[in-house]
Amino acid sequence: MPYPIFLQLKNFRCLVVGGGPVALRKVKGLLRAGALPQIIAPELTAELSSLVDDNKLLWLKRKFEANDTVGFQLVIAATNHKNTNALIRQEAIAAGLLVNDVTDPEESNFHVPALVNRSPLMLAIGTSGEVPYLSHKLKALLDAKLRSDLGEDIERIKQCRDSLIERAGDNIELKKQLIISELNPLVEDFICGMLISD
């Protein structure tokens, strides 16, 4: 069973190998997470080229070569060639890197879940890479059902939590009482009101 984790990628060196639609999807996810990825590919889609032109993506215009994963912490093998992806994956795993091979999820050491984003709330949906279509269908369902303004409610919950921590100080009993009397009702209301009314 996989160990779920949210990575802070701001200071991660991330490599995507491949220049097609799948690589584009992976690059967009990395950019949303605050990474500045590098891509290796002989050719790029028009949208990837635009990201390069906007200095949001570094591009090495060639095919993957041995030792290209050196210096990176996270690698995504997203070429159209299963054998090339396998070479990338094997090199990355041997170096102890995080690697996702889009053509062989079972041999990858991480999978990218489908995300429902209601920042700061993020719901990650995964099937261990085995049935990504199901993950994406569940994402679409939750995206359609969850209110878009949940972040505002979460901010109120955060402010309540910060306030009660400050007021309670080291008094554990007071903290418990404040959680029950103030924080819990807000959280219960949030949970009951998460869905869009039919």
Shape: elongated
As laid out across the biggest beta sheet, the strand order is 3-2-1-4-5
The radius of gyration over CA amounts to 21 Å
CATH superfamily name of the largest domain? NAD(P)-binding Rossmann-like Domain
Task: Describe the structure using short key phrases.
198 residues, 14% strand, Rossmann fold, alpha/beta, Double Stranded RNA Binding Domain, five-stranded parallel beta sheet, 6 helices, 3 domains
Describe the structure.
The protein has 198 residues and is of the alpha/beta class. It has three domains: 14-112, NAD(P)-binding Rossmann-like Domain (Rossmann fold); 113-146, Double Stranded RNA Binding Domain; 150-192. The chain has six helices and seven strands, in the order E-H-E-H-E-E-H-E-E-E-H-H-H. Strands 3-2-1-4-5 form a five-stranded parallel beta sheet, sandwiched between helices. It is elongated.
Write a short abstract of this structure.
With 198 residues, this protein is an alpha/beta fold. It has helices at residues 21-32, 46-53, 82-94, 132-145, 150-168, 172-192; strands at residues 14-17, 38-40, 58-60, 74-77, 98-101, 114-118, 121-125. The longest helix has 21 residues, at 172-192.
